[in-house]
Sequence to fold (135 residues):
Amino acid sequence: MENNDAVRLQNLMNKGELHVLAEELKPFLAEGDLDARYLNCLFSIDPDESGEEMDGRRITELKALALKWHRPSLIDLAWAYRYGDDVEQDRGKFLQLMTAAALLGDEQAKRHVAEFIELETDNAGLCAALGVTEE
Fold:
């Protein structure tokens, strides 16, 4: 997916134009595009899909995408584990997934890892030492 397509599709998501988004995603989903798969797991237009079913579908897809090193999926799945959102809470998995996103170059993930370690070790200063600042 080209960047302009990603921006356009994200704008549809932000505006809540989910039926249009679902149609626009179809060709990208047919290609197996990771960004399209990610967007597709974040909403449902199926009136027969319960909230619990959608949550299960979302987590299953985030796990599959995380195995492919898809940064947004790594981050979303990390937060799910951090707070036990539709998965069993696991701070170790949070740290692993967020670290993977940080290693892939995500600056916010880098900051979250440093903050998590600071909190867990009661050792302020890691963010400053790594040059990680709040945005």
Notes: The chain has a mean pLDDT of 91. The CA atoms of residues 1 and 20 lie 17 Å apart. The first helix runs from residue 3 to 15. DSSP finds eight helices and no strands in the chain.
